[in-house]
Design goal:
- There is one protein chain.
- The protein is α/β, with parallel strands linked by helices and 320 residues long.
- The chain has a domain of 206 residues: 2-enoyl-CoA Hydratase, Chain A, domain 1, CATH 3.90.226.
- 31% of the residues lie in helices and 22% in strands.
- The strands form three sheets. A six-stranded mixed sheet has the order 2-3-4-9-10-13, sandwiched between helices. Strands 1, 5, 6, 11 and 12 form a five-stranded antiparallel sheet that branches. Strands 7-8 form a two-stranded antiparallel sheet.
- Helix 5 packs parallel to helix 6.
- The chain is elongated.
- The two termini are 36 Å apart.
- The relative contact order is 0.18.
Length: 320
């Protein structure tokens, strides 16, 4: 799963980056510089012995150690601190910026089942470029509106293979099902709210306005049909943020098995060689401040994939 989520939850990569123009620095200075920011951002700053971890790396390197080895040791180190932290090479980050990280631009599907149930599958979105994000959000919303016109009696949102990625296009696209108001929060190690997530909120004049600039117009479904959100061990990172956005929604349940367990936000900073170190810096919580940075538990447990849809159908039938 680590490989699956390695490019996920890039929340503050552009805002939190602290540029450093130093170029020719020793390996020891590189480690010192890295740990300065790792500790600064880490949600574990007050509970982890970063000096000990840094010292362990410094004993394994010298001036002749290849920089690639140094970065690999750093990657092991931040993974030791928190499994959701990771390192992006210059090329990996460039792929995110240019949309090349995800060749398949539309990792979602939708269909009507038995003419009654609208099934929507979201498998995550890797990338931070505006064009791909706009297309993803707009196309996902159009698909939802298309299914809505077929008059389903309930919705099934399958997040079981959603490892995360760039959360904003997913929230914008699925917004008509999420509804208005604050959906989730991002809380730092001191308990301070750093960010809030909304698809749409009423402004001071009571007019509904969009909160994510990736859609042409705000669409809210007046009728709150039953919604079953399918989750599992491959639901991670921003996929877990989506899960929290649905948690406590009216007439909505989570069905499946516990999520992977990294519903956390990331802060990233560039090193002098354009390597980006991404550090777990916050915890996602739902609109009622539920969430502890650990696996999200389903309302109804079901591990048998041959039965999970049948249970979803039944729950919708019973809660129409």
């Amino acid at each position: 799963m680590k490989n699956i989520i390695i490019l996920t939850s890039i929340l503050l990569l552009l805002l939190a980056c602290r540029p450093n123009k130093q170029r020719n620095i020793s390996n020891a200075e590189y480690i010192e510089l890295a740990f300065d920011s790792i500790e600064f951002y880490s949600i574990h700053k007050n509970t982890y012995n970063f000096d000990s971890l840094k010292g362990c790396i410094l004993t394994q390197i010298n001036d002749s150690t290849k920089r690639e080895v140094v970065i690999e040791l750093l990657n092991y180190a931040i993974d030791e601190v928190d499994i959701h932290s990771y390192i992006l090479t210059k090329d990996q980050y460039k792929n995110l910026e240019t949309g090349k990280a995800q060749p398949d631009k539309y990792t979602f599907q939708g269909e009507m089942i038995d003419g009654k149930y609208a099934l929507l599958t979201l498998d995550g979105f890797q990338g931070v470029d505006s064009i791909s994000s706009d297309n993803y959000a707009d196309s996902l919303q159009r698909l939802i509106l298309h299914l809505h016109k077929k008059k389903p009696i309930g919705w099934i949102v399958d997040l079981r293979n959603n490892p995360g990625g760039w959360q904003y296009p997913m929230i914008a696209g699925i917004g008509p099902l999420l509804g208005e108001g604050i959906l989730a929060y991002q809380v730092n190690r001191d308990g301070k709210i750093e960010n809030e997530y909304s698809y749409a909120k009423p402004n001071e004049n009571g007019i509904l306005t969009r909160q994510i600039e990736l859609i042409d117009s705000v669409v809210i479904f007046i009728e709150k049909l039953p919604i079953v959100v399918l989750i599992g061990n491959n639901t991670g990172s921003a996929g877990e943020l989506l899960t929290l956005c649905f948690l406590d929604n009216p007439n909505t349940i989570l069905l499946g098995t516990p999520t992977y367990g990294v519903p956390t936000g990331i802060s990233g900073f560039f090193m002098p060689d354009s390597t980006m170190i991404c550090v777990t810096s916050s915890v996602f919580k739902n609109r009622n401040m539920k969430g502890n940075g650990k696996a999200i538990q389903p309302n109804i447990y079901e591990s048998d994939n041959t039965k999970i849809l049948l249970r979803a159908y039944k729950w919708i039938d019973d809660n129409r």
